[in-house]
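Cross-posted from the bioinformatics board.
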Amino acid sequence: GAGVSQTPSNKVTEKGKYVELRCDPISGHTALYWYRQSLGQGPEFLIYFQGTGAADDSGLPNDRFFAVRPEGSVSTLKIQRTERGDSAVYLCASSRSSSGANVLTFGAGSRLTVL
Amino acid sequence: EDQVTQSPEALRLQEGESSSLNCSYTVSGLRGLFWYRQDPGKGPEFLFTLYSAGEEKEKERLKATLTKKESFLHITAPKPEDSATYLCAVQAGSNDYKLSFGAGTTVTVRA
């Protein structure tokens, strides 16, 4: 597609529920990233995919968070047993490659609110 | 650990009133320093990449500069449409795919 597409744009859920957030990157971009942005803060790195594999998941806060990219294109961020502290905007980005000082193109984000 | 600090947190300008935003960083092995613009409800939008001290880049009313410890984003004769949050980020060391962001400077330009 022309840009990075994220769905849903907004998600309200109750504490303890399971949530999936989807990211459709720019066609041809092999690298895909998830970031989390809390109010008044800059984005924080969660996980990076090169192709189908997670090359670095060191930013995932705990084992309730998991992400997949089974065919090397669309990615899903999965959050189990959601907590109020998970409320934030989840941003997805993609880039043509991961080498060098590559430019990331971000989507508009999925705003998650946990009640 | 990479550290990026932006100042001020917020900046209110009159249309045409030029100013500068600061991004100071502490990293090991800078690969690139990035400036992004973020509008409310949107994702960050790429503006510039700077690679080495002394480098400068310009785009319309924006000019970014880089030293060994900090970067400045100069806004010349701003217009209301320049109102946004400006984010600075670094890529460093062996993790050259990972961006470490500052908290941003929110700029409001009044007509």
